[in-house]
Every structure is written in structure tokens, then in C-alpha cells.
Amino acid sequence: MTRPPSASRSPRRTPRLSVVVPCYNEQEVLPDTAGQLHGLLEELAAAGLCTADSRLWFVDDGSRDATWPMLEELTAAHGNVSAIRLSRNHGHQRALLAGLFTADGDVLISIDADLQDDIKVMAEMLRYYTEGADIVYGVRQSRDADSWFKRWTAQQFYRLMRLMGSDLVYNHADYRLMSRRAVEELKQFGEVNLFLRGIIPALGFTTATVHYDRTERLAGESKYPLRRMIALALNGITSFSVVPLRMITFTGLTIFLLSLFVSAWVIWVRMVSERVVPGWASNLLPIIFLGGIQLLCLGVLGEYLGRIYTEVKRRPRFIIDQVVGTPR
Ligand code: UDP
Ligand code: MG
């Protein structure tokens, strides 16, 4: 899926970069993160990879700690920082979308506030952009810093998604570069149940990947407990695949065919032999088995129905409370 950026196109001019950082209760990491990102912007500008008026865009996703006051301070102290405050906690994916749709600039790079993803590879991302790539994926080479549980669940998830026929980039989270036109096209995708990792490959355009090692969180705790990981995985599966629905059909069909044979056998036993079947197991097992399968199938149908329900309501995906530090 990943094509090298086309060499035929003439290099693009130096872009104005916006780095989009969703933050939810990130008071512990924010000062460090802001400092590192500031230093990086200066380096990138000095290397001629982005213009000097490039910006940092922090999105406060309804934090309950000191994240917002800290962001306000940052915007007051630095001319190149903007902060978006959402009206409540909307979740990582929507906070990211709010940032991408609000930030200006020729290229946008999204990255988590805890800087688990190596900021150094942004230079490489920008180089790919100037060579013609519209989307550059950051891909984790090693996840040694994650707990084995996180690593294992993530791995199983990518495997499952591939099995379901989705075009996910393996080990790519939401650390990526998008060109202005890719972001504009993204606006056409109206789904409320957001799974950006699945939507963005569907945009097409020339893509590239850069690799890095994922490190520990700078400070604080993960804002992605198991409950949220499962919700994200379910969104990923149901918004990109109808394979579970098809599996229901096949299971139903198989059981139906089997039951035809069993019926024939029952009739044969009834007609030919005089045996009286005590029939405890043969009655109980199908009831439990079929009951289980039926409930499972209802559950899968319910998942899709629930998604359809939330989609048809067309509710806004995020609500912005205020934006401070807009470019002058
Ligand atoms: N985040 C957010 N809203 C939420 C949960 C998380 O904006 O409701 C942000 C969080 O501040 C961080 C990013 O999403 O910048 C990823 O979260 P985290 O690092 O906790 O996830 P993990 O790396 O453990 O998967
Ligand atoms: Mg993290």
C-alpha cells in the first residue's frame, strides 16, 4: 500500500507546519512536551524543513486538571502556540479531528501529548512531504516500552482487522503527517463513530512511512484504559467491515444444513428402529448451543444497529468551547 513518494513531481516549497496535540488531563507532561516541541520547531525551521511561523496546536479534551490554565499560559508566553478547548471530554479521536479541522498550515502532524512517539522523525516526515507525499505514517518499530498486555492486545487487534479486510497500517497509531489537501478531503468523511486509522488510508494520495521506537510516557498515566481500547477496536471493526455480519449468515447456513441431516436421521430412526431414545444430552446440547449462537448473532447485529443509530442522528463530533492564541 505504501508507495514511495513520486520522484517525478517537482519538490514542494517549504511548508508552514502545524503540530496538533490532543491533551486529556496531561498536566504532568505538558511543560516538558511543550518545551520539546518548541525546540523541535526551531530546529526544523533552521533546517529549512518548515517555515519560521509554524505553530503548535494543543487541544484540551475537557481535562479536569490544570491542563487548560497551563495551555492558556503557554499561548500567552509564546506567539506560536494555539489552544483549543472542547466543551467536554469527547475522546481522543474526536479531539484529534477538532485539532486537524481547526489548525491552519500547509501540513499538519498529529502526535500524542505524552511524546511516546519519537518527535525526531518529524524531519523525515517533512522531507517526504516536500518530495510529494500527502500522508506520512509514523510506524512503531518496537513497543518494548509498552506493557506486554498492551502490546499483545494491540497485536491481536491489527491481526483481526487484517482478517476482516481492513487496510490498516500495521503498528501505526495516530502519529502522522497530512497535507492541507488531505485534511480538506478528510472533511468529506462524515462518520460519527470515528476510527481515523481506518479512514485515512481510504483517502488515497501518495503515502510514505517512517519508522521509530516507541518509548515510555513522559509522565502521568495512560488515558486509554481497557474499556476505551475495546470501544476503539469495536469502532474500527464495525465501521470498516461487514465480515461479522457475513459470518452470521455462514454460521446460520452451516447449522441449517447440519440440521437437515439430523432431521433425516431422526426420521430414519423413528421409522426404522423401535429404539426409544432417552434423549437427555441430544435435547439439551442443541438448546444451549443454538441459544448461545443466537444471542451472539443478536449481539453482533446490535453492534451494527447501534452504530447506524448514532450515525443517522448526525450529531456534531466535537464542540469547541474556545480557541486562544490564534495566529496573528
Ligand atoms: N486523549 C484525549 N482524550 C481522551 C483520552 C486521551 O485527548 O479522552 C489523548 C491523551 O491526552 C494523549 C493521547 O490521547 O495525548 C493518547 O493517550 P494515551 O497516551 O493515554 O494513550 P496510550 O498511549 O496509553 O494508548
Ligand atoms: Mg501514550
Written overview of the protein:
With 328 residues, the chain is of the alpha/beta class. It folds into two domains: 17-221 and 316-324, Alpha-Beta Complex (Spore Coat Polysaccharide Biosynthesis Protein SpsA, Chain A); 243-312. Helices cover 47% and strands 15% of the residues. It contains ten helices and eight strands. It has helices at 30-46, 67-77, 92-102, 122-130, 148-163, 180-186, 196-199, 226-240, 243-272, 280-312, and strands spanning 17-23, 55-60, 81-86, 107-110, 135-140, 172-179, 207-212, 320-324. Strands 7-5-6-4-1-2-3-8 form an eight-stranded mixed β-sheet, sandwiched between helices. The longest helix is centred in the last third of the chain and has 33 residues, at 280-312. The two termini are 40 Å apart. The model has no long low-confidence stretch (mean pLDDT 86). Uridine-5'-diphosphate binds at residues 22-24, 26, 61, 89, 91-92, 95, 112-114, 116, 222-224. Residues 22-24, 26, 61, 89, 91-92, 95, 112-114, 116, 222-224 line the site of uridine-5'-diphosphate.
